[in-house]
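seq as requested:
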Amino acid sequence: MKKFWRITKKILVIASVAGCLTLFVITLTSAIQAQQELHCKSIVVQIDFETGLSFINEKEIEDRINYLSGESIIGRKITAIDFKTLENEIEKNPYVSNAEIFVDGSQSVHVSIQQKRPILRVLNNDGVGYYISEDCERLPLHPTFTPHLAVAVGNVETGLVHRDSVVQAHLFSLINEIRKDDFLNSYIDQIDVLANEKMDLLPKGSLHTIKLGRVDNQISDKLSKLKVFYKEGLNKLGWDKYRTINLKYSNQVVCEKRETTVTTDSVSSN
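struct tokens:
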């Protein structure tokens, strides 16, 4: 009798487990079938406008998604939307850094866009313009939106030749050093690229020209020296006293007055 109950108990346990598994499979299958029947109810495009950039807008992205899908995705089965392909295609936009697409519990398709960030505008002697991004990429100028940035002008070649890539690398290093300092970042308006790869800086109002020389591993020291001179020199003598401020010499700032030339005392960046 005891043996009979042991066998019966085992059978009941096995039947119970089998029943649970069957119920689980049925529930999972029903959930998958229900998921496959879900349709997109709306598109929500989110762009990082808080950065101050407006290279793209929500309608442009929504229209692009619908175009790539062959029709409006609203009303389409969510399982029929190829999110990965859409992300890759949107990221081909020259102003898009990253695109992520996902669906929320309300069956809304969300599109999150991060824009590429320009840090310098370039306008060369041929009249060709573009931006240099924070990743040292070239971005085309936008037909309707122009961010407020310092501009580099002069001898920057149009093609991707060796000298051009060197100049772009130097401009990238220079503008990043300038951007590290809030005062210089707001004060420097223009970079003049000379024929010998030397560079001049022009501040707002073009009160004087800052002779920087070539961009090298001393660039941080040169800019620190400039700030010390502004603080200890021009604040006392007047910001329009000099025609040029030359930073090419070690421990000296050589200034040309509007009528003569003087050499300041050695300055320290401390």
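The first helix runs from residue 2 to 36.
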